[in-house]
User: Fold this.
Amino acid sequence: MHQSLRSVFSNPTNISNFMGMKNNNDYFAGRSPLEIIESGKFGDLYEVAQRVDALRG
Assistant:
């Protein structure tokens, strides 16, 4: 995920903090990626990774 974030963002703050930032995308619904991953479900981790990777276009 970090590699995907590095290719999407040029701002080091966004690269480092994206995972903890609230996101208003429909899937995230105001939650941060870390909040979703903290569920402990592998499916949630996979989905977040897919969404982050999709940012690359």
